[in-house]
Amino acid sequence: MISKQVSFMFAARAQQSAAITCGIIQSVRRLSTGSGSEVELIRHDGSDKGIATIAFNRPKAKNALSRSLVGDFRQALDELRSDSETRVVILRSAVPKVFCAGADLKERATMSPQQVEQFLHSMKVSFRELETLPQPTIAALDGAALGGGFELALCCDLRIAGPQAVLGLPETSLAIIPGAGGTQRLTRLIGASRAKALVFTARRFGPMPALSMGIVNDVANQESTGDSQNIGESGYLRALEWAREILPNGPIAVRMAKRAIDHAGAVDPVTGLDVEQLCYAQVIPTQDRLEGLRAFKEKRKPVYHGH
Ligand code: CAA
């Protein structure tokens, strides 16, 4: 496991992003449970302190989900789950033109049916770990997010698409079905009829249809600046803007709001209201709540510390 203190980002594109936004990266931690180091955990600093980015970096296989990558990813999630300093988590790719190509189909071809089942289980557990992170999560979808890659994004609270995003569940074209929660999470998000249309056809679609179906919350600016290399704002930069909007809000309140909202639809309405009440009870004794009231009275911006 290599841990490295750096003041700026790891890849040329990311360096450009950091320069544009004046964000400072405090540390990049390359996680490795196996042979490679395919997941980076980046903690931002300066005015972005409190934002953490998980970046997938497996260029040779377009960030396909191998056993090793999923292991590294789980390690990153483990670290963040217990990190009270992290207020917002962004998932992104360090590989141009792809977010994640889904299950590693080459590795899959070498697995026995039992190993496929085991791997699917560990993928599902990791996706659930992502979904239940206490902090809000944002998927920055630059490039292809297909199969398991799209299902991964569905576990995030928000999804922001870049101009080059290509989404889809191509599983039925491989004679399988979405097996990492896609049939359930997509259906809850957009309804059975639309989910069936996408799964039955295995169709790939871009950012604007994704926005109109409610699959993504926002699409980055598609305007080119005239530079032939520049295809517009990246989904990551737009996701960073969203993270910055969440960052100053009461961290415990945001976590409790996430927990309460996640229960809507999972429990009956009366139980849901009880859950909301229990979540509200967590914010009442906080110093942050008192700070919010003081700041309102003093006509200034509140400063929350997460206690
Ligand atoms: N698994 C393993 N390797 C993959 C991969 C995958 N899912 N996707 C791409 N690669 C590899 C390619 O085989 C290729 O390797 P070689 O150089 O050794 O030939 C390399 O990545 C580059 O791929 P392309 O040349 O295809 O790159 P591209 O930029 O033209 O296209 C892509 C990128 C759109 C992601 C395209 O590769 C693609 O469509 N990949 C397959 C996506 C897919 O069907 N995913 C669903 C998997 S099933 C699943 O996820 C269900 C589940 O069980 C959870």
TrEMBL record:
Highest taxon of source: Eukaryota
A Pfam family this chain is assigned to: ECH_1
GO molecular function, one term: hydro-lyase activity
GO biological process, one term: fatty acid beta-oxidation
Example of a GO cellular component annotation carried by this entry: mitochondrion
Entry keyword set: Lyase
Similarity remark: Belongs to the enoyl-CoA hydratase/isomerase family.
Listed name of the protein: Enoyl-CoA hydratase
